[in-house]
Amino acid sequence: MKRNGWMSCSAILTVTAIVCAQQPAENKPPAVALKEYRIDRSITADARECIDCHAKDSPGIVADWSDSRHAHANITCLDCHTAGPADADVSQSHFQYDKTPVSTIVSPRDCSRCHPAEAAEYSRSKHANTLAIMWKIDLWMNKGANNAVERVTGCYHCHGSTVKINNGVFDPDTWPNVGVGRQNPDGSLGSCSSCHTRHKFSIAESRKPEACGQCHLGPDHPQIEIYEESKHGAIYHAEGDSWKWTSAPGAWTAGVDYRTPSCSVCHMSAVRDIPGTHDVTERLAWETQAPLTVRPADFAAFPAKTDHKAERAKMEKVCLACHSAAWTKGHFDHLDKAVANYNEVYYKPIKAVVDLLYDKTLLSKDQPFDEEIEIEMYEFWHHEGRRARFGAAMMAPDYAWWHGFYELKKRGMMIEHMADELVESGKPAKRFNLKGTGGETTPPPGIQK
Fold this sequence. Notes:
This protein is mainly alpha-helical. The chain contains 18 helices and 6 strands.
């Protein structure tokens, strides 16, 4: 039942027993007793005031909340948004409406009051630490090769910002932001609403590949496009509307609720005896985003505290929920060979060509992207190299070959040709005036390069 656009405070169910069979007059059954079942969903006056006010000012928020599991469990605005009086992110402007201190930001630390395991898993994941990872390895940031506008609208949108507050007002260069590695004023990392968008926080939404496709797309990490090309994605698009996306965690079952995996099935969901996790660093045997493919524990920017053999075994068990042992082994054998092919045949030889140019001072190390061959080398691993590896990992042949290894051959030829010309001429490469530079090169507090 709903009243005034939101869930009623009390639901009453009255059940009456009806006797259908006719009875002789002298054997009339006794009078039917009425049974009343009452579920009390009362909320505080302060919480009701929040709902009534926002129902007028931002009705979409209240509509989402009223249809959420939070609302059904009697969790209201104040349970998530109430702040301590000394919290840095207390909304000063809200005091003109209500005396209760509230914060716009609901951080993973806030969510951990009810979801402690999920918050702890997330905190140790690559997602939560992706802003730090970016500052440690990304030359665009470290060398100021892009500017503040480009970072706010691009990098920080997915990686997260370091939220700053000046005199009770959010710094517009850092807020709004729901990046997965956002540094919150309370010291926690991340934003749960990156995947579970507010204020519905739907488990079904976060399980679908479109949730991941918000950030994992494009020329450098086209996982959503790769998924859509794969057999998994084809079946999802053909049948996914009929699958049951709302089963409870741990009860979402292959072959019962869904026919093929989404991103969350392989990387996060509980499958058979493999427990669910919010740490997407798990189940990975390779760090395929790096220039040279390494084991996750050897990724210098964020060494995973995992054993790649154990994590591969977990991923294999996920596959075995639907595939045979022979098929599963064959797939991962192909992936391992594709990784070795990329590392040994493409990346190492081409990197050696470029490194020689630096040794001969034919390339300058001052600015990483002001010479044409530097851009070519960057895209060699960051675009084609990733696509080749991701395509092999996720069974997308067009990305593994045409967008991957084929393009590596082509760009590798270009780099070698450009390098030969520089060596023959003995003249340093032309340095261009790179447009859009000037970004801050000092990382946020707590992040070491």
